[in-house]
Specification:
Blueprint lengths: L20 E3 L1 H7 L3 E6 L11 H14 L4 E6 L4 H13 L2 E6 L9 H8 L3 E4 L5 H14 L4 E3 L7 H20 L6 E6 L3 H13 L4 E6 L10 H16 L11 E3 L12 H14 L8 H13 L8 E6 L10 H4 L3
Parallel strand pairs: 2-10, 3-4, 3-6, 4-5, 7-8, 7-10, 8-9
Antiparallel strand pairs: 1-2
Helix pairs in contact: 2-3, 2-6, 3-4, 6-7, 6-8, 7-8, 9-10
């Protein structure tokens, strides 16, 4: 039997896998169809869960194989990626340094509180771009004799994305076991690594449904678009697999019609989606990523994008700790 794609990559086990696959029966009934399933990557276990745990298994494995002593990454103040990176570093016995945009708040809340509990060193960049500070700090650490391993935003590179190509294999096995099919997967898309990995996994194992990303921020994509960036990353992930795809690569589909007030700005769409899923299914979404993506999915259903007899899977990428930093925006007065 041929080895599984990516099995040669160094890996440091962090996540509780496979994550549950559940039916959202009450939400389905409330919306009048299609049938909605949810893939619970909010239940990966590391630091209250989230999709980054899968990616960090390979990123930390790569860091350790290179002799790194520090994980260095960047994000927003309430970055789920930074929170899970800090936890992974603690688990692996590595130092963690985080480059966060903005100014240090008076009191830490949500993910920022957890960053501190995990022992991360935080660098605040104020109005400056975090990416530039990231490279400067990495150079400074090397001059001090340290060996930093730089992780891009969201862990979105071929090594991190490979984890989600493998997640598609996991989903395929769960669907087969339960004699289920899925016509479409909907997922929050920002740095693009999760969706790119899913697309690569689709090419490798032949999933026939659509993979729809809901853009959650405007981002900066240079000459191209988020969809083109995701497509290019998918191809790099497939190259890393070292095996030819079973099916042709499909174009990335990203719906950027639900950006609302911009990154991290909670509006009526996000509030309604978070409240609806909590009250219908007892499942928590986050205010930045999954709240916006679920809001987008609900609106797509209302627009009849999916047939009433279809089955749509919402891939829950986690992020619930950020809820505790958005109380004023979410509180039902």
């Amino acid at each position: 039997m041929a080895p599984a794609p990516f099995s040669y990559l160094p890996r440091f086990m962090l996540a509780h896998l496979p994550t549950p696959l559940e039916a959202l029966d009450r939400l389905t009934k409330h919306l009048g169809g299609p049938r909605i399933l949810i893939k619970r990557d909010d239940q990966t276990g590391l630091a209250l869960g989230g999709n980054k745990a899968r990616k960090l298994e390979f990123l930390v494995g790569d860091a350790l194989s290179q002799g790194a002593d520090t994980l260095l990454t960047a994000g927003a103040v309430q970055s789920n990626h930074c929170r899970q990176t800090a936890a992974a570093a603690a688990r692996a016995g590595l130092r963690c340094e985080l480059v966060l945009g903005g100014e240090k708040p008076k009191s830490p809340e949500g993910n920022l509180l957890l960053d501190d509990l995990f022992g991360a060193v935080i660098h605040w960049t104020g109005p400056e771009r975090r990416g530039e500070a990231l490279e400067s700090i990495a150079s400074s650490l090397r001059r001090e004799g340290r060996a930093p391993y730089v992780i891009p935003y969201g862990g979105s590179n071929p090594i991190g994305g490979a984890a989600y190509a493998m997640a598609m294999v996991e989903l395929h096995e769960q669907l087969q076991k339960n004699s289920q099919r899925v016509d479409a997967i909907v997922v929050a898309s920002s740095s693009g690594g999760t969706q790119a990995g899913l697309l690569a996994g689709q090419a490798l194992n032949g999933f026939e449904g659509q993979i729809v990303g809901i853009g959650i921020d405007k981002g900066e994509h240079g000459e191209g678009s988020l969809a083109s960036e995701i497509g290019a990353l998918s191809e790099r992930i497939l190259a890393l697999a070292g095996t030819p795809p079973v099916h042709p690569m499909r174009e990335a589909e990203v719906d950027e019609g639900y950006l609302g007030g911009g990154y991290g700005v909670v509006g009526e769409r996000e509030r309604d989606a978070i409240r609806l899923l909590a009250r219908m299914e007892g499942i928590l979404l986050d205010p930045v990523y999954t709240g916006r993506a679920m809001g987008g999915l609900i609106e797509l259903i209302m627009k009849r994008r999916f047939g009433r007899t279809d089955t749509v899977l919402f891939w829950h990428t986690g992020g619930a700790p950020a809820l505790f930093a958005y109380g004023d925006a979410l509180f039902d007065v």
